[in-house]
Amino acid sequence: MDLIIVHGGSQHLWNKEEDPWLYKEIAYVREALEKNIPVIGFCLGSQIIAESLGGEVYLADEQEVGWFKIFLNLEGRGNILLKSLKEDFISFLWHSDHYSLGEGCKTLSFTEAAANQIIISDSFPAIGFQFHPEYTKENIETYLITSDESCFAVGKYGTGKESFLQETKNMPKTYGLFKVLMNNSIAWFKERGKV
Asked: What's phi and psi for 47, nearest 5 deg?
């Protein structure tokens, strides 16, 4: 295969006994990376990449549920992966977990609540996005309408279901960010001779 994309989910890597298939998923991603197969992860997928490379996933102090500014750090501002993006941009986030970085990994961006929003590896063809640029407004609106109120964080980084739904309706289309990140990801892999 040429590329693996690992999507999000409601599972928690710090509670693998609840979802034991996660052990195999992490091993699978690690094996792919060791074979130099490029891997991109979104949210849970990013956490799986982080853990497969030696990081640790843990329950975060604060959930991030909603639309948030993602800030590029100095390393991110000069990286081909973030070419054509402003020093901060808005994307959709929905997670209650975060992670530390394994050896050889670095972060390119952060939010107020989470230090690692975009991660890459110096040693392996791995890119992790802790946020969800792959979701469209329509996906999010459908999920918001059909989900139970208990799914939504209320607090410093979550406004609850109704406010989130209204904010989503007022957001511009999200496909542009996803397209830029995917094109830049392919360029990043090519720069390293991985695709």
From this structure: -65, -40
Residues of the chain with pLDDT under 50: none
3-state secondary structure 126-176: EEEECCCCCCCHHHHHHHHHHCCHHHCCEECCEECHHHHHHHHHHCCCCHH
Q: What integer pLDDT is reported at residue 129 of this predicted model?
A: 98
* β-strand partners of 10: none
- C-alpha 11/C-alpha 22 separation (Å) is 9
Q: Which two tokens stand for residue 115?
A: 């230090």
- The pTM of this model reads 0.93
Nearest to 38 by CA among 126, 130, 123, 118: 126
Superfamily of domain 4-192: Class I glutamine amidotransferase (GATase) domain (3.40.50.880)
Run of H or E including 25: helix 21-34
Question: Tens digit of pLDDT for each residue in 123-171?
Answer: 999 999 999 999 888 888 888 888 766 666 666 777 777 788 888 888 8
